[in-house]
Design goal:
By secondary structure, the protein is of the alpha+beta class. It has 3 domains: 123 residues, OB fold (Dihydrolipoamide Acetyltransferase, E2P); 56 residues, E3-binding domain (Dihydrolipoamide Transferase); 218 residues, 2-Layer Sandwich (Chloramphenicol Acetyltransferase). The chain is built from 9 helices and 22 strands. Strands 12, 15, 18, 19, 20, 21 and 22 form a 7-stranded mixed beta sheet that branches. Strand 16 and strand 17 form a beta hairpin. The radius of gyration is 24 Å and the shape is globular. The protein starts with a strand and ends in a 7-residue tail after the last helix. About 18% of the residues have low confidence.
Length: 461
């Protein structure tokens, strides 16, 4: 039976995708789990796995072409199989696309595709995972995974698809510890994801506060030495929008135009947060706790105290979320912005938040996140303090009801009991959707956040 390679739906905001390059050519033999094509979505670059075996009979979409979600990209089948009806369309493609869209919701958990041998489409959820859209998540890790069993070997080599090997390497996992569920016990993408859900999180070398650029991206100061030569060449150049930039443009119009923003700002004494950070890093130098980690944990605690802010506008209702999923604004390499999500942030320790945020930020910068890692946030934090920005206002990420903008933690002269003294201060600005959050509600949240940051011993309880 022919296998359809479809343009998957990577997120609820994705309507189209671009074919970057084909990893197989027509006539190549394909096994289940082989990566077939690399695509660009509105958030990340994805490699699409084959969910059936055969021969790549026909490629229908050329590289650099943008096509809608659900478009047929290629057909895999037997060498002598008649695939003309599949290419022309037999009515099953549309139904498959509708089923795919209704099953993914805002929490599509995989970066590549899954499904049956008859269709190549993104899976609606990891095995055992609860539906996230409109459903309260039960606490605890998910998805449940089988006990690690060494994968079958052939000639001393662990059987695994190329994508599974690369994902395991990036996640710091040993292939020998992963159970393979593909043909002949071959390890495929889903097996690596299941193992990653229960494996201890590796300490990421890529550190720094969330959203901070890598050192190579920090511009060096320019000192004028001699007059610049007269410019030559064309006056300008136009560059087509990337899929991510298109999505950003659309989302900002959806947010700034119809959402009635208002802003609340407060200044926080960060001296005790500094002492907490220095003490923690002295005890565990590998932790590299940042101010941003402390602010994320404090936001989760403040949202628990003020659940009215952990809400979103739904048109005819306001949805109050019973789980706290924090989005972190991160600048990606090559431009663009993405918000990795810390799920159930209020249940995690400072150390867990520090490690997880750094790992997510490092993969976000290179656009290697899975869809489940950048969708479903209930409140967002945007930090430009590491770039020296004292204060700014962030644009709400709909349908969330608020977003916190974090400025630099800086020394400044402050007045204490009539005396001018040195102090360590940080400016925080809360952008609120007035349809969800009133002024007094937002002010209560900022007051709670200020109290926690100025007395961070609270975070230990």
């Amino acid at each position: 039976m022919a296998v359809k390679v479809m343009m998957p739906k990577g997120s609820d905001t994705m309507t189209e995708g671009k074919v970057l390059k084909w990893l197989k050519k027509e006539g190549d033999a394909i096994s289940t789990g082989d990566t077939v094509v690399e695509i660009e979505t509105d958030k990340v670059n994805m490699e699409v796995e084959a969910m059936g075996s055969g021969v790549l009979r026909k490629i229908l979409v050329a590289p650099d072409k943008v096509v809608p979600v659900g478009e047929l990209l290629a057909v895999i089948g037997k060498a002598d199989e008649d695939i003309s009806a599949v290419i022309k369309g037999d009515g099953t493609s549309k139904a498959g696309v509708r089923s795919q869209e209704s099953g993914v919701s805002t929490k599509a958990p995989t970066a590549a595709v899954g499904g049956t041998a008859a269709d190549l489409k993104i899976s609606s959820a990891l095995p055992g995972a609860p539906a996230l859209k409109g459903t309260n998540l039960a606490p605890g890790p998910w998805p449940p995974a089988p006990s690690p069993v060494p994968a079958p070997e052939a000639g001393g080599r662990v059987l695994a698809s190329p994508l599974a090997k690369r994902m395991a390497k990036e996640m710091g996992l040993e292939l020998a510890e992963i159970t393979g569920t593909g043909p002949n016990g071959r390890i495929i993408r889903q097996d690596v994801e299941r193992r990653a859900a229960i494996a201890p999180a590796p300490r990421a070398a890529a550190g720094g506060a969330v959203g901070a650029p890598t050192p190579s991206r920090v511009p060096a100061p320019l000192l004028p030495r001699r007059p610049a030569p007269a410019p030559t060449g064309p006056e300008f150049s136009d560059e087509p929008l990337s899929s991510m930039r298109k999505a950003i443009a659309t989302r900002l119009v959806q947010s700034k135009a119809p959402v009635p923003h208002f802003y609340l700002a407060i200044e926080v004494n960060m001296q005790r947060s500094k002492e907490l950070r220095e003490s923690a890093n002295l005890l565990d130098p590998e932790l590299k706790l940042s101010y941003n980690d402390i602010i994320l944990k404090a936001c989760a605690a403040a949202l628990r105290q003020n659940p009215e802010v952990n809400a979103s506008f739904q048109g005819e209702s306001i949805r109050y979320h019973h789980r706290i999923h924090l989005g972190m604004a991160v600048a990606t390499d090559g431009g663009g912005l993405i918000t990795p999500v810390l799920r159930n942030a209020d249940t995690k320790s400072l150390a867990e938040i520090s490690r997880e945020s750094k790992e997510l930020a490092a993969r976000a910068r290179t656009r290697k996140l899975l869809p489940d890692e950048y969708t479903g946030s209930t409140f967002s934090v945007s930090n430009l303090g590491m770039m020296g920005i004292d204060e700014f206002s962030a644009v709400i990420n709909p349908p969330e009801g608020a977003i916190l903008a974090v400025g630099a933690v800086a020394e400044k002269a402050v007045v204490v009991d009539g005396r001018v003294e040195p102090g360590l201060r940080c400016r925080l600005t809360l952008s609120c959707d007035h349809r969800v959050v009133d002024g007094a509600t937002g002010a209560k949240f900022l007051h709670s956040l200020k109290q926690i940051l100025e007395n961070p011993v609270y975070l230990a309880f």
